[in-house]
Write a structure and sequence with these properties.
The protein is mainly β and 120 residues long. It has no helices and 11 strands. The N and C termini lie far apart (40 Å). The protein has strands at 4-7, 10-13, 18-24, 29-35, 42-47, 54-56, 64-69, 74-79, 88-95, 109-110, 114-119.
Length: 120
Amino acid sequence: QVQLVESGGGLVQAGGSLRLSCAASGRYVMGWFRQAPGKEREFVATISWSGGSTYYADSVKGRFTISRDNAKNTVALQMNSLKPEDTAVYYCAAARGYSYYYRLSEYDYWGQGTQVTVSS
């Protein structure tokens, strides 16, 4: 059973930064998604199995950076210039394969989620 353990969420003021981390029990294509209250879960960022390719949602492009450490099987999401609309539960996800994926249905495993709250 694949385990994904997220950490790093919290409360931050608008314009601030947070770094989320996710530890996986293996090496997979990795992604970050988020779900705000009353809204559907949405794609945030993804990184390929090798780490050579990344893809971002338009809403976070230029502000968020996804990276991975394959030696440790971890993936991180550096979030800068945070906005109140970034407030959500953030989920780490893993998928079998080698490319990068942005659809929820392409992911096989999910973490428990970590809360990110951005105050105005």
